[in-house]
Each structure stands twice: as C-alpha cells, then as structure tokens.
Amino acid sequence: MTVSISQSAEGVLTLSLNRPDKKNALSLAMYRQLTEALATAERDPEIKVVVLQGSTSCFSSGNDLQDFLSAGELDANHPTVAFLYQLNAFTKPIVAAVAGLAIGIGTTALLHCDLVYAAPQCRFQMPFSQLGLCPEAASSLLLPNLIGYQRAAQYLLLGESFDTAQAVAMGLVNQQVASDQLLGFVAAKAAELAKLPADAVQHSKALLRGKMKRKADKAIATELAVFGELLKSDACQQQLRDFFAKKSQ
User: Fold this and answer.
1) Does the pTM exceed 0.85?
2) Residue 118's closest CA among 50, 166, 176?
3) CATH code: domain of residue 102
4) Domain annotation covers residue 29
5) Residue 239 · residue 130 · CB < 8 Å
6) Cα dist. 199→14, 37, 141, 181, 214 in Å?
7) Which controlled-vocabulary keywords does the entry list (predicted)?
8) What pLDDT does 125 receive?
9) In the chain, N or C terminus with fewer CB closer than 10 Å?
10) Following DSSP, what letter does each residue of 165-206 receive, concatenated?
11) CB within 8 A of 154, min separation 6: which ones?
12) Measured between alpha carbons, how far is 70 from 48 in angstroms, rounded to an integer?
C-alpha cells in the first residue's frame, strides 16, 4: 500500500503516505487512494476528522513527475486534478503532521488543511517556476492571502525554501513538535477535535473557509489551464529533462 488507511474508535481517519523509497512522492495510484478516502470520509457520519501524515522523517517530496506526466491532459479524469478538487471541497477538518520534506504539493496541500503541526528542521518548498511551471492547488490565491503578496512571491516566483520556524511565523504551521512526538501529538489533537459536536465543527469550518473555498475552485481551474500550457513549452521540457538527468546521476 502506498497510502495506509486506518480509522480509530473516536472517528479519526488517518491517511499515511507510505512510499519511503521515493520519499513519499505522490504517484497517480496514491492520488486515487487519497481522493477515494476523502470521498468516503465525506459520506461517512462516523468519520469526524481526517489526519494526513507521512512518516516521522518525511512528509512528501511532491509529485512523482514521471508518473504525473504519463496521465495525459490535466482534465477531470487526471488523478491529481480529482484530488485537488476533492481536497478543496472537503467539509470535515483535516489535521496534518509534517516532517522532513514538504515539496510542491507537499506544501500546497497544507493550505487546505485546518490544523498543521510540523517537526523541527522541515524543508518546505514550491519550486514550480524552477521547473518552468506555475503554482497549483490554488496556492496562487491561498498563499498570498495567508502570508502577504511579497512573501508569497518569494516562495512561488523564486521557489525559495523555508523551514519550520518560518512556517510557524507566517501562519502555515500551527506549532512545532518534536519529531519523536509528532504523530502521537497530532493523533491526540485529532481525537480531541473528534469529540466536539460534529455539526458545530463542520459549520465553523464552512464559515471560516466558505468564501475562499469558492474562489479556490476557480483558482485551481485557472492554474491548471496555465500549468497545462507551460507543461508543453520548450522551456519546461528542457527543465524537466535536466531534472530527470540530474536525478539519474
């Protein structure tokens, strides 16, 4: 299994990225698993909270690019696209546990989570422009809304990385937690959240995120259109060739 799925008696569904040999790079199969799990959790009244986590050493190194490129057009049938819309539409709280790498979608997915806890010395990065591409997952909307335009430009245009302390300071991460305590801490937070009246929690999330969620749907669609065009460009193709060549060395 590339995504391990477990459910607690308290109503917490835990989705664990489990592809350590690839630093939890997200494959098409993993996207399908995540999308299906979120859709199931949405329908199941027994599930109150979802936890999204990697291991104690790595959250996700981003897309498995070779797999991603094999899926064709970025339309509704593309597993990555389906996941992005499902993540944005999800009405129940998502709590994320982040350790090690959080690259590309490993960072932008956190913008859709409600609580995010991270181990010390994480590396967050959104290197889209370095690959000749543009932001995804509505990050062009959500990141500047969270941290301001100039800092968002620093991380989305230059593709600079940042650490856990910076992520906490900018509001992307709620709290830093020791690596060996992270998963247990997040499990306890999720259980605490699951004990609260579900209707109150879900209505509160809707009030907090409702207007931005609708805007994010449009942003995802706009980003995907540009992303698809850039993906075909000579500049992007050269960057991808260089990336794969460097990776194979």
Assistant:
1) yes
2) 176
3) 3.90.226.10
4) yes
5) yes
6) 20, 21, 28, 30, 21
7) Isomerase
8) 98
9) C
10) HHHHHHTS-SEE--GGGHHHHHHHHHHHHHTS-HHHHHHHHH
11) 160
12) 35
The residues that bridge with 116 in the sheet, in sequence order, are 96
Residue 191 lies in a domain: no
- The CB density around residue 193, as the number of other CB atoms within 10 Å, is 21
- Cα separation, 76 vs 179, whole angstroms: 37
Q: Is residue 35 part of a domain?
A: yes
Other Cβ atoms closer than 10 A to 111: 20
DSSP E strands: which ranges in the chain?
A: 3-7, 12-17, 49-53, 94-98, 101-103, 115-118, 123-125, 175-176
Burial of 184 from C-beta contacts in 10 A (0-12 / 13-18 / 19+):
exposed
Nearest of 226, 145, 186, 216 to residue 51 by alpha carbon: 186
In a domain, 68, yes or no: yes
Distance CA 169, CA 45 (A): 35
Under-70 pLDDT residues of the chain: 1
User: What count of residues does the chain have?
Assistant: 249
State the pairing for strand pair 94-98/49-53: parallel
Beta-sheet pairing, 94-98 with 123-125: unpaired
Percent of the chain having pLDDT more than 70? 99
The residue written with tokens 């494959």 in the block is: 27
**Domain, as residue range, for 25:** 3-178
Q: How far apart are CA 189 and CA 196, in angstroms?
A: 11
